[in-house]
Amino acid sequence: MQHNAACSQLDQNGRLRHFLSIAGLSRELLTEIMDTADSFGSVADQAVKKVPLLRGKTVVNLFFENSTRTRTTFELAAKRLSADVLNVNISTSSASKGESLLDTIRNLQAMHVDMFVVRHASSGAAHFIARHIAPHISVINAGDGSHAHPTQAMLDMFTIRQFKGQIEGLIVVIIGDILHSRVARSQIRALTTLGAQEVRVIAPRTLLPDDIQTIGARVYEQIDYALAGADVVIGLRLQKERMHGAFLPSEHEYFSRYGLTEQRLKLAKSDVIVMHPGPINREVEIESRVVDGDRSVILKQVSNGIAIRMATMALTMSSHNQTRSQQQK
Amino acid sequence: MQHNAACSQLDQNGRLRHFLSIAGLSRELLTEIMDTADSFGSVADQAVKKVPLLRGKTVVNLFFENSTRTRTTFELAAKRLSADVLNVNISTSSASKGESLLDTIRNLQAMHVDMFVVRHASSGAAHFIARHIAPHISVINAGDGSHAHPTQAMLDMFTIRQFKGQIEGLIVVIIGDILHSRVARSQIRALTTLGAQEVRVIAPRTLLPDDIQTIGARVYEQIDYALAGADVVIGLRLQKERMHGAFLPSEHEYFSRYGLTEQRLKLAKSDVIVMHPGPINREVEIESRVVDGDRSVILKQVSNGIAIRMATMALTMSSHNQTRSQQQK
Amino acid sequence: MQHNAACSQLDQNGRLRHFLSIAGLSRELLTEIMDTADSFGSVADQAVKKVPLLRGKTVVNLFFENSTRTRTTFELAAKRLSADVLNVNISTSSASKGESLLDTIRNLQAMHVDMFVVRHASSGAAHFIARHIAPHISVINAGDGSHAHPTQAMLDMFTIRQFKGQIEGLIVVIIGDILHSRVARSQIRALTTLGAQEVRVIAPRTLLPDDIQTIGARVYEQIDYALAGADVVIGLRLQKERMHGAFLPSEHEYFSRYGLTEQRLKLAKSDVIVMHPGPINREVEIESRVVDGDRSVILKQVSNGIAIRMATMALTMSSHNQTRSQQQK
Cβ of B112 and A306 within 8 Å? Predict the structure, then answer.
């Protein structure tokens, strides 16, 4: 049983024990994450922006690749829950002395830490760590390769729910580099789980994964058709740094075929919202006027990122506390 | 009105809303900063060196160029005010992914932070940020190009007042690289605003800015004349790393013409104090015996730096809180 | 008297004022450190892993060489004592602007900090700093060159005591690179002070210091003889990065002559414990099966590292508080 528990995101009561990917999580659980985030939304407006839920707990930001933006949101979330935060950048640590990932984890775990927030360039790294961690430690996936980035997906769901009331029945369009995006996969899963009517994707063929239709998205060839009647449009970053070889048309050509412009946005519903996970390449994948326009909820996504991260931290920690107190009885 | 408020350091009640430069601040306001710092001086002597003024607030150290020394003093000041501190080093962050300064700021602001401490290689960067920031966030300039470094200037004023009782009527000599010093300009402004009798500057002609006399300083050619009767002597660092081309005499020649020696110091008043913003090049711009001698208040400047930074943080935050509570009425 | 006090690890009452090296410390004092660590052991098991002993104190991690692992343990220890922690990495700070070590220290000290945790590549750096520091500041040596690493030695003693009840009468074997190990010297001193029956060392002759016998260890040539009847076996890391020139046999040859294998471990007592300071080169100095086997207490060492660091921080700080309150009477 302990083995099973260690391999899954859920504890024996079906509560969130780790947060590794959207896959396998029920609509109820995704909704619970959003409801919890809702309850933290007001913390940011208080004069004292802290709640004592994680006081005396140690959260380790274990970053195997640099991401100031993501690290910052998790650090803020942890501090607003009153946790102690330890930033460990592994490229500059023992890894360079040839220590294995597992030895690094075991060492940190021996220091009685309570949670790892893991960012890694390899898909599955967070799962691997969760599988080998002591039962009292939570693991939160802050992006692994091009596999998953579940807190980003959940902050997007949370933002959509805020503006649309629910995900159910919505038409959502995702434009751009689906292949290299750790966000897109998690988004599509979350959207389908939460009952979106249709998830449309559009991108150069070289930036679409082979299995795209099997995971519940419908591929479009022409952006005008994709945008027609859309409730939500999500632009993805053109991840130049991830591309090898001649995948792509020129930036100019890309923008003319896939760029999200004000003109094109008129094809969507009049109350469409525009989202982007950032950082943005203005005038490459999206027109600056759209970024700063009245349909954009991009900065709201950033704010919601803190609340969602607080929620997943609080939920996984509460699963552990519950398990611990049951064991003590 | 909101636009005006966003562009100025002062709120509509004339209180300090941001702290960007000495220029435009009244003698009363500079005095209020020093009086507030006075009230924090004793915090450092308490067993528990903390006051809860900024509890639950998030201060972001936004450093676009590396300065461990300055970052450290702001981090300590913020922690002693009980704030949460986030160090964001932008050279290693999204900037390298091509995100604009403005997008970076908007993102951090969306995370509900309360204050930016900004260090940037370009003059005017802190002003630019203050102009584009949300109304509830304070900006403190921690050095922008060779333009301003107002907290350094104020800790110098505070130190002079501590030893001389007042700035009014004093003769102050500034020796060295005025051209590249972000400190010197701020100092001269603060000294003249606070009623110094005379501010004398002396440096190789290539290290003096063209407008030096218009900002209230008197240029001397001979160090002996400059030091005669001085109450305060401020040595500046010979900023070798900022020099391009053949601005300068050799170090040896520089020391023989402008070096602050014990011998030369005898020309000043007997109760003269010697200051230096650090880090010091011993035996280049100043004799080691002077640095460590009984007229030196250099380490007192460092201590006062914490108190002044606490003061400017507390004052700008209190302006915002006041504004917020007025809006709520 | 103040001069004497500043040069020694002990205050005038014989209490621990700094923690620089094991040399010169009595068995009683080493035992007090372990007893204090014992009292902190349970803190890690509490829901809120904090005690308020250092609340409002500022601990500076002053690292002149990179060591994420060691820095992390001290940062955690300080935070669990409720101190504010400042990480100062000197390779990226004023040192590069040519400021001397002493000026750096004086500057930090002027900011009213309470403790320096010092890591430096040069032997004696922590002593040097302790000699020049203001009386109210404690210095803890976190490793200086190949000289000393006293908290590592004490966490090893603490771990041995935990498993063996006492150090007295034990046979302890240290295998590997004694010459370049900052740990081995401190360990040998601590073991002899605490009454170990025999400290055996074994290594290629090029990795043994000349004075090894004078500091209380007995050199063995054959690993089988060294292991015979051992209570404790400590493997040291083969510090490849410290070696210059042709000191060494090949890794393969090294492992075949000195590698700690399960087979060889059978020569030791049946209740032998195996230790290693980490990071480990698996299959180079130690067999992976031994690292993960039931005689290994390697991860227990890591846990105990936090408790020992908390203990030395608390004891040195309490010496200062006592001295201060005596002075005030």
Answer: yes
Dist. CA B3–CA B8, nearest whole Å: 9
What is the H or E stretch that residue B226 is in? helix B223-227
Residues A2-148+303-328, CATH architecture = 3-Layer(aba) Sandwich (3.40)
Give the number of other Cβ atoms within 10 Å of residue C92's Cβ. Answer: 13
Q: What CATH number does domain C150-302 carry, 1.20.1440.130, 1.20.1250.20, 3.40.50.1370, 3.30.420.300?
A: 3.40.50.1370
Nearest by Cα to C173 from C186, C184, C162, C164: C184
- ipTM comes to 0.86
* CB atoms C76 and A58 under 8 Å: yes
Burial pattern C164-198, b for ≥16 Cβ within 10 A else e, equals beebeebbbbbbbbbbbbbbbbbbbbbbbbbebeb
Residues 6+ apart with CB under 8 A from A315: A15, A16, A19, A32, A33, A36
Hey, what amino acid is at B117? V
- Are A110 and C48 within 8 A, CB to CB? no
Please count the helices (runs of H) and the strands (runs of E) in chain A. 12, 9
Chain B residues in contact with A44 by the CB 8 A cut-off are: 112
Give the pLDDT confidence of C200-220 residue by residue, as tens digits: 999 988 889 888 888 889 999
CATH 3.40.50.920 fits B2-148+303-320, yes or no: no
User: Mean pLDDT across chain A, nearest whole number?
Assistant: 89
Cβ count near A111 (within 10 Å): 21
**Across the interface, do B68 and C112 touch by the CB < 8 Å criterion?**
no
- Angle at which helix B27-41 crosses helix B182-193, to 10 degrees, equals 110
* Best residue of C53, C58, C85, C97 to probe chain B, by most B CBs closer than 10 Å: C97
Note whether C299 contacts A94, CB cutoff 8 Å: no
Contact list, C100 vs chain B (CB under 8 Å): 282
C306 in contact with A at a CB cutoff of 8 Å? yes
Helices and strands of chain B, counted as H and E runs: 12, 9
- Written as six digits, the tokens of C253 are 């040859």
> CATH 3.40.50.1370 occupies which residues in chain C?
2-149+305-328, 150-302
Q: CATH 3.40.50.1370 spans which residues of chain B?
A: 2-148+303-320, 150-297
Q: Cβ–Cβ of C56/B47 closer than 8 Å?
A: yes
Q: Which of B55, B107, B109 sits opposite A69 (nearest CB)?
A: B107
The pLDDT of A134-157, averaged and rounded, is: 92
Q: What residues of chain A lie within 8 A of the CB of C69, using their CB?
A: 93-94, 107
Within chain A, which residue ranges are assigned CATH 3.40.50.1370? Answer: 2-148+303-328, 150-297
Does B91 contact A at CB distance below 8 Å? no
> Sorting pLDDT into bands at 50, 70 and 90, what band is A46?
confident
- For residues A173-202, average pLDDT: 94
Query: Phi and psi (nearest 5°) for C12?
Result: -65, -15
How many angstroms separate the CA atoms of A36 and C40, rounded?
35
Q: Does the pLDDT of residue A172 top 50, yes or no?
A: yes
* Shortest Cα distance, chain B CAs vs residue C283, angstroms: 36
Inter-residue contact C103 to B276 (CB < 8 Å): no
pLDDT band at A41 (very low <50, low <70, confident <90, very high): confident
Class in CATH terms, C2-149+305-328: alpha beta
Top-level class of domain A150-297: alpha beta
Best B84, B86, B109, B116 residue to mutate vs chain A (most A CBs within 10 Å): B84
At residue A201, the pLDDT reads 97
Shortest distance, CA C137 to any CA of chain B (angstroms): 13
Three-state DSSP string of B258-295: HCECHHHHCCCCCCCEEECCCCCCECCCECHHHHCCCC
| Number of Cβ within a 10 Å radius of residue A267 | 16
